[in-house]
Amino acid sequence: MYRLSQTLTDAFSRRFSRTVREDYRQDEAYASTPQGRFWLGLALVGLLLLPLLLPQYPMFVATQILVAALAGLGLHLLVGGAGQISLGQAAFVGIGAYVSSHLSGDLAPLGILLGGLVAGAIGVVLGIPSLRIKGVYLAIATLAFQFLADYVFKRWTEFTGGVAGRKLPAEATFLGLPLADDRVVFYIGLAFAIPMFFYAKRLLSTRAGRAWFAVRDNDLSAQLSGVDLVRSKLTAFALSAFYGGVAGGILMHLLGAVTPDNFVLAFSIQYLAIVIVGGAGTILGAVLGAFFIVLIPELLSVVAGAFGPQYVAQLSAWRSVAFGALILLFLILEPRGLVGLWGRIRDYFRTWPLPY
What is residue 320's predicted lDDT score, i.e. its pLDDT? Predict the structure, then answer.
């Protein structure tokens, strides 16, 4: 009976489990099994069909999730990949938003890309202190940058519009399609998000990604092993800021108008929560964390509205408390984030109902 059980388990594992990766080429593959490639293709098709299936407001929320996932992914690469803490991601999102606001219509994709490049260049400057300080001191340095950016957003009226912010032309179109339509913005965002997610997945499996992990675990040992700390830390900051800038450009076209209140410290903490809740250092964690951070407040609003409109106003005061309590409860129960929870569920069903 034991031999039969072992034979069945081995056959099951060979058929359905991940293949053993014997070289770096296999390790860099996006999906290592036929089942993985099938589900990956199905997910991509589902994303392309999503605007045709959802009504207007759910499409708006889905685009918000896309923006949060991109900004969160940039912070995942920095915090989970290179181990450098940052409390200024919302500032980079704001930089991308304000830069892209000057290029609308058919130039919208160019504005989004330019916003990411400008944010990435500023990210290199912000990364310079990481060459000398780390930990809580680096967090304070990025926090200072967040406050400085908030001051610039409010005072540089010629570029940002000051406290009133900036608005896009209501009649702006892209290839003849109105940019006021959330479905158009979603497709534009998807055109950026898909290659950026695939690039991040490949990057973490390459030599540069492994150098980031070495810096994260012990930067002194990494340097003694031949890792260029200057290049690793600065590229991590630049890439994180670039992802945030692109997310900000998409957000600008989604909202049609932005003000400095869209990029305050609370949003930087929200992006950091995406990293913690999703699972630091993983691509899937950015997606799952964005779903959690964006959808939970929406679900709380729906639940409060079901009891009556008078409870919706009360929820606005208690939603942050309830939201924070959910995050704390989740972290206590699953410190590795949603990715760790998904991994346990996947590993259980991968060999079920066999004994091991």
Answer: 65
Pairing assessment for the beta strands 173-174 and 166-167 based on DSSP bridges: unpaired
CA–CA gap between residue 29 and residue 67 (Å, rounded): 25
Whether residue 353 has a cis bond before it, omega within 30° of 0: yes
Q: What was the pLDDT predicted at 196?
A: 92
pLDDT tens digits, 53-87: 888 888 888 999 999 999 999 998 898 888 888 88
Chain centroid, CA 340 distance in Å: 17
3-class secondary-structure state, position 258: strand
Residue 257 pairs with which residues in a beta bridge?
167
Which helix (H) or strand (E) segment is 333 a member of?
helix 310-333
Q: Answer for the pair 74, 239: CB distance below 8 angstroms, yes or no.
A: yes
Instruction: State the DSSP H helix or E strand holding residue 174, giving kind and residue range, or none if neither.
Output: strand 173-174
Three-state DSSP class for residue 178: strand
- Say if residue 300's pLDDT is above 80: no
Could you give the CA distance from residue 243 to residue 27 in angstroms, rounded to a whole number?
Answer: 24
Q: End-to-end CA distance of the chain: give it in Å, rounded.
A: 14
Q: Which residue has the tokens 């199905």?
A: 42
**Burial of 70 by CB count in 10 Å (0-12 exposed, 13-18 middle, 19+ buried)?**
buried
In the chain, the domains with their CATH numbers are 54-351 (1.10.3470)
Q: What pTM value is reported for the model? A: 0.85
Structure tokens at 155: 């005072």
Tokens of 247: 């997310």
